[in-house]
Amino acid sequence: MDRKLPATTHVAIALSIIAVAIGVLHAAEATLTADSMKYDPATEAITVNGNVHLRDKDGEIFGDSGFGAVDGSTFELYGNIRGKFTDKGGRVVNIICEAAAMKAQEAGHLLAASGDVKLTRGAETLTADFVTWNTEGERYSAMGDVLGDFAEYFIDADAASRDEGKFSASGIRKFSEHARKIDMSANSATGTIKDNEVTEMIAEGKVVVTMPDKKGVTTRVSGNKGVYSLARGTLVISGNASATQTGRSLKSENIVYFIDTGNIDALGSPALTFDTNRK
After folding, report:
1. Which residue range forms the structural domain that includes residue 173?
2. Exposure of 184 in the CB half-sphere (CA atoms within 13 A)
3. Among 11-20, 70-79, 239-248, where is mean pLDDT lowest?
4. 89 Cβ partners below 8 Å, 6+ apart?
5. Which of the residues 63, 154, 156, 274 has the least number of beta carbons within 10 Å of its own beta carbon?
6. For 12, which DSSP code?
7. Which of 254, 168, 170 is nearest to 205 (CA)?
8. Which residue has the higher pLDDT, 17 or 53?
9. pLDDT higher for 126 or 181?
10. Are residues 144 and 203 in the same domain?
């Protein structure tokens, strides 16, 4: 038999049977409040409506309605969701979306958000149709009109994900590496990040990269595949490779672009075209 708690109590759940919701339950106390609540002892499920508020030591989240397991292992929220969490670096992350599902973990929370999702952390932002995020670290997966502006890079893509120092993306309309002002588009890419810099990246499918050298001369390179290495200071383009600067263009099987100097090595049947009218 269901038991409905009075709305007038604006239910504060600190009961022993409901040690609930978004916290790591055996490690920290959590609290759920709402205008009304229904508990089903047969399924050990909670349904809440109106001014729903979940909070624990790591953060809080608000919504219009929700339901979940009484042991706090899972909980779902719907409507006008807004939340605030602290990640493992002590940085505050804010989230806005239309629906969210949370799962308690040994460390942090696994949160799946959908519907005009926006996460912000200081000046960093991530927006998408759907985002899965682990609050303990740099672990997320985003799909659908992904726009991300982070300390290391900006991305506009169909999908993007990061697992600490590794990242991947597909349907890349624009990827900008902030430190070296490198812009790229490609079908897909994978790479690594260390100390706020993109250290390696492999891009495939209609790869187009533009970058300035230290003198400000912009070079556009394109091909079927691109391999970027910060340690070597190179971008290697292969497969129908080409490089273009104002007044000249180069085609070859493979092109090696040296990022700091702007020097180019062409390997495999190179052909140079240039404007003879330019001085």
Report:
1. 154-279
2. 34
3. 11-20
4. none
5. 274
6. B
7. 170
8. 53
9. 126
10. no
